[in-house]
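Example (one chain per record):
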Amino acid sequence: MGINVKAVERKIAYLSKEKDVYMYVMQPMFYNKLTPEKVIQEAAIRGGLTTAVMKVAYSALSEVLKAWATEGHSVAIPGLGTMRFGLRADAVKSVDEVSSKLITLRRVIFTPSVEIKQELANTSISITCYDRNGKIVKNVSSKDSNDVEDTEGDGKENGGTPGGTAGGSTGDHAGGNTGDTTSGTPGGNTGESTGGGSQTGGTGSEDGNEHIVL
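Predicted structure:
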């Protein structure tokens, strides 16, 4: 098993004033989305249970996640990791300005388990390169460092402290969509995401504003 990636040659206008500046932009290739019914069916087969029993178990787990996460708990998802609810909010200097209006975004935060991250690190990657005309020009095997991003973790990653009191979202985005993720042919608007940064919580600068990430 492995992850298939395509590198498509696209025009990246914002990087230079010159015309027709092309660069190879990589993105994972996804074939389809497994439906809940398919997931339950596969889990039932692997667990030696009936589909009906597995469906009830999945439904019960979903209810537990919703009930405890809305109470402010970080809830373990056996074999996968943990899930919690969080938010992004503007920061203000005066306590008189504090209100729910400062909240700009509610978030669902999933932190994968060590086993899941190790599985990803051990997964091979195959890259298929397409030129601007959609022709395959090269195939590349995985030789990356196998590092796995940990954007949430325990709050100690990337300079943060437990509870999320430092850090922030510092990446910038330029351009637009990078094309079709379900086929091997070029498509979509030009542009890509550049930059990045930590999203482990705390205050940070985003679009010129101060935000709290919890």
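Caption: Residues 51-69 form the longest helix (19 residues).
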